Please model this.
Amino acid sequence: MIIKAEIIAIGDELLYGQIVDTNSHWISQELDKIGVKVVFRTTVGDQREYILEAFTRAEQRADIILITGGLGPTNDDLTKPLLAEYFNCPVELVPEALEDVTKFFTRRGRELTELNRLQAHLPTRCKYIRNKVGTAPGMWFEENSVAWMSMPGVPHEMEKLMVDFVLPELKRRFDLPVIYHKVIRTVGIGESWLADILKSWEENLPEHIKLAYLPSLGEVKLRLTAVGKDYDLMVDQVAEQIHNCLPLISSYIYGYDNETISEVVGRLLKNKNKTLALAESCSGGYISHLITSIAGSSAYFNGAIVPYHNAFKIAMLAVKESTLGRTGAVSEDTVIEMAKNVRKEFKADFGLSTSGIAGPAGGTIEKPVGTVWVACDYEGGTVTKKLQLSNERDINIYQTAIAALNILRNCILNGN
Amino acid sequence: MIIKAEIIAIGDELLYGQIVDTNSHWISQELDKIGVKVVFRTTVGDQREYILEAFTRAEQRADIILITGGLGPTNDDLTKPLLAEYFNCPVELVPEALEDVTKFFTRRGRELTELNRLQAHLPTRCKYIRNKVGTAPGMWFEENSVAWMSMPGVPHEMEKLMVDFVLPELKRRFDLPVIYHKVIRTVGIGESWLADILKSWEENLPEHIKLAYLPSLGEVKLRLTAVGKDYDLMVDQVAEQIHNCLPLISSYIYGYDNETISEVVGRLLKNKNKTLALAESCSGGYISHLITSIAGSSAYFNGAIVPYHNAFKIAMLAVKESTLGRTGAVSEDTVIEMAKNVRKEFKADFGLSTSGIAGPAGGTIEKPVGTVWVACDYEGGTVTKKLQLSNERDINIYQTAIAALNILRNCILNGN
Model:
């Protein structure tokens, strides 16, 4: 049986966009790991009727209801009185809770106010759960075989309650299935082409393994989800399915799970003991930023030049004036010279270069905005690619970077 | 009358915590700006009964329903068929949509697949809204005086549809209260210090003007919100309040509203007809990326060098070996030489340099992780600053960039 959870985040500040609700995402991830299926997430403001409606609907759909927020000591915080109303019980002082909140303030050299004392008053049907890092207590209810937990909205307080109490308690009380996810990360192919290629493979997946396409800018992730009882068996079964689809799409796969393409490139360079240099024109330093965002990148990254005018392509990268005159800065010949020369200047094993029209201005009929050339020079030769991207500057910069890193990745794989 | 909105985000990947739902937060903020009150946000998986239930509940609560996600061409994407089911209408080919999706692929030199063609089939009761940056069309419905809009889950596609169509359309169709926001952007001071300085000013704000502190990494935004009926009057009233607080905090203010610090720097350079060159060590190309992300930056940005090893600080930036030997790469002397030389190499008016220990490794007792030096060289002299940042690599890179751009900004303002 699938155990279903619903997450309810309470607070006007979330609905008005003043605070990002990172809690619901974090809780989703943690529940996913223990095999609880989140079926609904709701964000509701500090309003009685909407909060009660959220409680009612959640109870109809879920076995577990996790609530964050609305637990402060002020009048606009409604979670506690509404839980009491919903479960039809009074709110009374819990001595243990008062002791904890008193200690919390004493340790900080502060006096307890009347509002703080009220935080120790709880609905009589709940079990008090100690919040070790704040003053708003956790509350656990079990009613009609549904487990409810109310937690503060402050992320580190919520996380501590989840880790210390909620997750272990859920594992203890529920017979949870084992869920295993594996993500295949692809680049250089759109969602619908992938789906076309994988059609019959997908149709033949066993019932307990599901496939989802997760497209984002410049890449598509394929997520395989297996549900069962035996973790190791599912790992094997998913591996077998991936093995079956590899011949169809291996050239598009750059990595698995959470690994980004710049991490993959970094790992490959490090393992082969090779170094990289960049000459970035239209990508303007973004590839360098992606590479250097990774801890330890100084082991394989020698440096970059961003020559944002032709004069500096000539002066700093020895691109020939005649090349620029003949074919222009956005051309195969120019990126080849940039890649070769930056590799030489930085004494690197791989030289990667970009030149293009990022936009929104600067396009011509022959070279419209979004025209980009990429080159990678290494001992195995020089690989080039022309991209035809969008009208949006930020998208063009991003997609140039992803495409260039993928070309680099293939060159590293082809090298010694 | 208050106009109420509900946001529905669709996708298993959100509930499983694999993707953060940034869309709902972004939409919340945009609706707040135009005076629409978000009363509920729901996240639901790719499951028929839950999606239909979310539609039903939303229609009971809201005047406006904004839906993101579930619009891909594959079988697990249910939004379109379920909207057709909900509004009890067939799905038919929309020639205009087919033309747009065909153009989208032709422009990229690719063939339309059968799945792509299906994306142009829409519920007959909807109005087709062109998605200029993707293939999943926008769909607008008006049923029982509720406005519905279905948008793709890819953030930049959703944002473009919102800005180009949804927000103007909502303003046109609904009698919205007049809300005026003005954001003051500050850098170099923490939230609680700002709040201390502004305490009595804040207490004297008129009832209809509210102040919010919006802290983020490296900066704090102050948002003034006025609610009323007369827009011009509110603009004047807010301007008067800002005029009153300027003497208190003017040295921390770098801009207003949506202008980022790299945009401010770009505008200043352009207006003064000056140019910039960068020598980025620990910031690794990130400042270059921030500068070149702005359209038209080639007018004032000459280029950057990212010398990720000492050897290239010497070879490419003529930093003296003796300086590196004496004071190390992370030192005032080194960043001064880097700034001076990169300015000379790129024939620029301003040379900006960074060198530091981004972490997580590489720290020493004298120079722990997070130690960063920044220099800016220009005709008025050389300005340097030492920063002591965090243990987190990405935070250190980000804060180095913001601090360096602020130093540059002050130098530009001080120059001729």
Q: What stands out?
A: Chain B touches chain A through 88 residues (CB under 8 Å). The longest strand of chain B covers residues 178-187. Chain B has a mean pLDDT of 93.
